[in-house]
UniProtKB/TrEMBL annotation:
Keywords: Carbohydrate metabolism, Isomerase, NAD
Domain named NAD-dependent epimerase/dehydratase: residues: 3-248
Protein name per Swiss-Prot or TrEMBL: UDP-glucose 4-epimerase
Pfam (any one): Epimerase
Species annotation: Streptomyces coacervatus
Cofactor list: NAD(+)
Encoding gene (name): galE_4
Domain of life, source organism: Bacteria
Length: 321
């Protein structure tokens, strides 16, 4: 049994490849290297350079490696870029998925795991977001993830493919410094970037209806997230049907609390600057983690301090002080 991991040279994909391979699964990675880094993959995991939009290549890879399951992470993931280039996001994220699912169906592959996102929910006004909270994405990136889920479930039903959609919340940290996210698109690297430039971290709005006035999010360590993929892959191996599940810790952390932890870890405790709210930021977005525990037997183990400390080691390796 071999798993194809698309986006396997990416930040999350490389963590998933390592965890699955360490657990004894046979894995092969496919990545177009638009954002991937081959050195993130262990030497014994083959990397095929190519796109999910290339149906002929997918067919050859499935045959050559006798692929029996797919973990599909390859996607573009920047919200602002998706607003600027919606057709590109639909073409690559949804079109790439459609091409992949056609090849999967044709090859008779029966297991498919899809990287979805909390972005499918938009900004719901609830204490804990469950998988039954209505989906109302607020940008093209989130729309491509929701459309992707529909496509995965529809293809699964028609072609008899067992499917799992994992809706990740805010991913942070690294299992090893060389696996860290090198982009500066999420809050943790954005704060590191400010400190490295000798500038104070920024808080966008401290007048939200939350205990300290700053936005609350659910942060999940990428090593925990990778273990959730292994749990989902194992479930796919012995259960059919489809499952959609939140991947978070079920615990909210405010921006101010996060910046305090970053100050403790980096030793740079300068006070944050409070600026105006950004349009579209929800006051609170925290997962209900109950279904993941029940259906996957998986619960996050690592806390925010561990995420920040491991991300900082990665930052120092890639960017210096
Ligand atoms: N990082 C997060 O916080 C987060 C949160 C929710 C969901 N996700 C989803 O997780 C997945 C992985 O995200 P990541 O943070 O590792 O991003 P990443 O950019 O590091 O990884 C994506 C990888 O896919 C590759 N890729 C992109 N388009 C491709 C294509 N058409 N064919 C082949 N390879 C392609 C890129 O080169 C890259 O290596 C994405 O689907 C993303 O939307 C990420």
């Amino acid at each position: 049994m071999t798993w194809l991991i698309t986006g396997g040279a990416g930040y999350i994909g490389a963590h998933v490849a390592r965890v699955m391979r360490d657990a004894g699964e046979r894995v092969v990675a496919l990545d177009d290297l638009s954002a991937g880094v081959p050195a993130r993959l262990p030497a014994d995991v083959p990397l095929i350079e190519g796109s999910t939009l290339d149906g002929g290549l997918l067919k050859r890879v499935f045959a050559e490696y006798e692929v029996t399951g797919v973990v599909h992470l390859a996607a573009r993931k920047q919200v602002a870029e998706s607003v600027a280039q919606p057709t590109r996001y639909y073409r690559e994220n949804v079109g790439g998925l459609a091409t992949l699912l056609e090849a999967v169906a044709e090859a008779g592959i029966g297991k498919f795991l899809f990287s979805s996102s909390a972005a499918v929910y938009g900004n719901p006004d609830v204490d804990l977001i469950t998988e039954d909270t209505p989906c109302a994405p607020v940008n093209p990136y989130g729309e491509t993830k929701l459309t992707g889920e529909w496509l995965v479930r529809a293809a699964g039903r028609t072609h008899g493919i067992s499917t799992v959609c994992l809706r990740y919340f805010n991913v942070a940290g690294a299992a090893a410094p060389e696996l860290a996210d090198t982009g500066v698109f999420n809050i943790v690297p954005m704060v590191f970037d400010r400190l490295t430039r000798d500038e104070a971290p920024r808080i966008f709005g401290d007048d939200y209806p939350t205990p300290d006035g700053t936005c609350i999010r659910d942060y999940i360590h990428v090593a925990d997230l990778a273990e959730a993929h292994l749990a989902a892959a194992r479930r796919l191996a012995d259960r059919s049907g489809d499952l959609t599940v939140n991947i978070g810790r079920g615990e909210g952390v405010s921006v101010r609390e996060l910046i305090t932890v970053i100050g403790e870890v980096t030793g740079d405790r300068r006070p944050a600057l409070v600026e105006a709210r950004r349009p579209g930021d929800a006051p609170r977005a925290v997962a209900s983690a109950a279904r993941a525990a029940e259906e996957l037997g998986w619960t996050a183990r690592r806390g925010v301090r561990e995420m920040v400390a491991s991300a900082w080691q990665g930052w120092l390796l890639h960017h210096g002080r």
